[in-house]
Amino acid sequence: MTDLYFDFLCPYAWRGVELAAALRAGGERFRLRHYSLVEGNHPGNASELTWRLTEQPHAEGSAAQQGSLRAFVASHAAAAQGEEGHWAFTLALYRAVHEAKQPLEEATIMAAAETAGLDLAAFERARADNDARRAELRAELDAAREVGVFGTPTFVLPTGEAAYYRFETLTRDPATAREWWTLYRTVLTSEAEIGTIKRAKNRPPRKGA
Amino acid sequence: MTDLYFDFLCPYAWRGVELAAALRAGGERFRLRHYSLVEGNHPGNASELTWRLTEQPHAEGSAAQQGSLRAFVASHAAAAQGEEGHWAFTLALYRAVHEAKQPLEEATIMAAAETAGLDLAAFERARADNDARRAELRAELDAAREVGVFGTPTFVLPTGEAAYYRFETLTRDPATAREWWTLYRTVLTSEAEIGTIKRAKNRPPRKGA
Questions:
Q1: What gap in Å lies between CA B86 and CA B23, rounded to an integer?
Q2: Tens digits of per-residue pLDDT, B133-165?
Q3: Which of A39, A106, A185, B157 is the most buried (most CB within 10 A)?
């Protein structure tokens, strides 16, 4: 099983989740895991961990902070309804935010839960147990820190290799997803021991190239 | 022709130059070009360009600054003796510094010129025309800035794609070099429009993996 670290704030993580969803259709297995960009990039955490997302009040901080915390808690509540429900909720919320351009806030989260076909009463009860959901989230953010995740999406292969994989094109086609996934794994397992391939600043990938 | 940006300070650029040298044996064409890490990473250049390597006195600044400026000027002097002489000098100096662990300073540079079979009198004359060599260097550093090079080695493909390519394993085997080069080009030209593949911080490539 491959771990897939994501943050609902990130449009590249959205592409990564869609890629994984397309690969699941072909039998590849992924575990959805959370990584927080606002925590990872927080200036207070530059040398040591002093600012934790999971210790912030729900109604304080930037829109990105409040939205991502709320979405992560909801994601853990969705996970309580099983793997398929979690995937359906994750995809529905990503599409609402990054495709339909809805704000990452309460109404969007509830609509995603409905789209995903979750048991809404159970979802609400799971969200209301805020301490438990935050504890689950904290454990995942700790796991991400141990791997050294710094951006999303980051995949951790069953064999231990792990890397950030940023690409522009969204695909839901299983054959295309398979090709891009094979390319990524080939880079990570090459005997060249590749650490980084990163575009020069003024030569981003060409749209429609 | 592919442009290959390098800095003699950088052990990853050494691997890149060796890779290109192995590919040249198979007919692939590369142009050696300079990029300065001390200039690119200088705190004074964070928002705009205020500190230029080419404007620094030869005997001032850190060992990295003095050594890289001296090596770049020598590299331009070697280039004046033609493409093959430039490659021979570049490889000889890289191997002296990163394989034999010699310091990047005058004696090492002269020994590399001798190893490369350069006309030493002509090499000395070309180096002595310091203003001309610095002007050549400045033009290359400007070209690198236009591409948005931020580290070495960076390759700029004939079709315009450009990316930093960092890998751990040195190869001089043409077939292996061809495989790693094909992988890099596949990433850069994939319809996924890949911007970055970068290992998680605590999961570097495994030595001997």
A1: 16
A2: 999 999 999 999 999 999 999 999 999 999 999
A3: A39
